[in-house]
């Protein structure tokens, strides 16, 4: 489990293609400081398992399913990535409950700069639209954000200077893709209500 509060901006230093999967090597001094084999680190919102950790670089295997369903398959050597270690019992839940299980991919549609912050609008896949509500939580590339506005096929968020400076969203342009994870509570409520109606 994660909180959606990014700990650092890491860098992909190598990608080894292994048939229908890949092994990523990612530099991140903070997340590797106490990482051990088998630990979880979210990379752009995707929960990955640490295989090796040495000299500030960790490696993780990514299966074909994850490469297809997330933006990890689009990463290149040198790509910046949002990194967060798994939460502990003592972690402050500064964002919301994030699983690191990507539900879909969205696209940056527009950016509107303000005096101190920016409004960014993303496409919203039809299968996810029912889980996204105004003032609700959504995870974009691993970042816990509050939905400012939502339509049938778009949603907008406001990015404060810290988010713009310390995450990949500060540099994403219109047309670029992002990983989306909707609030897990909404999916559970839907399933429970469906069971009650049956």
TrEMBL record:
Gene3D superfamilies: 2.40.30.20
Keyword DNA-binding applies: no
Pathway membership, UniProt: Cofactor biosynthesis; riboflavin biosynthesis; riboflavin from 2-hydroxy-3-oxobutyl phosphate and 5-amino-6-(D-ribitylamino)uracil: step 2/2
GO function term, MF aspect, one: riboflavin synthase activity
Superkingdom field: Bacteria
A Pfam family hit: Lum_binding
NCBIfam families: PRK09289.1, PRK13020.1, ribE
This protein's name: Riboflavin synthase
Organism: Dactylosporangium fulvum
Lineage, top ranks: Bacteria, Bacillati, Actinomycetota, Actinomycetes, Micromonosporales
């Amino acid at each position: 489990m994660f909180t959606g509060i990014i700990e650092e901006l890491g860098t992909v230093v190598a990608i080894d293609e292994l048939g229908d999967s890949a092994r990523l090597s990612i530099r991140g001094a903070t997340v590797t400081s106490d990482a051990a084999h088998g630990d979880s680190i979210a990379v752009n919102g995707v929960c990955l398992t640490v295989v090796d950790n040495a000299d500030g670089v960790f490696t993780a295997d990514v299966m074909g399913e994850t490469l297809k369903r997330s933006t990890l398959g689009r990463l290149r050597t040198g790509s910046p990535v949002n990194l967060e270690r798994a939460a502990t019992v003592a972690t402050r839940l500064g964002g919301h409950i994030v699983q690191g299980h990507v539900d879909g991919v969205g696209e940056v549609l527009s950016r509107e700069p303000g005096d101190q912050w920016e409004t960014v609008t993303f496409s919203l896949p039809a299968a996810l639209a029912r889980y996204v509500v105004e003032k609700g939580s959504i995870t974009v590339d691993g970042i816990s954000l509050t939905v400012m506005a939502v339509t049938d096929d778009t949603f907008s968020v406001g990015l404060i200077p810290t988010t713009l400076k310390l995450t990949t969203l500060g540099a994403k342009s219109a047309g670029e893709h992002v990983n989306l994870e909707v609030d897990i509570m909404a999916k559970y409520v839907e399933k429970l209500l469906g069971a009650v109606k049956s």
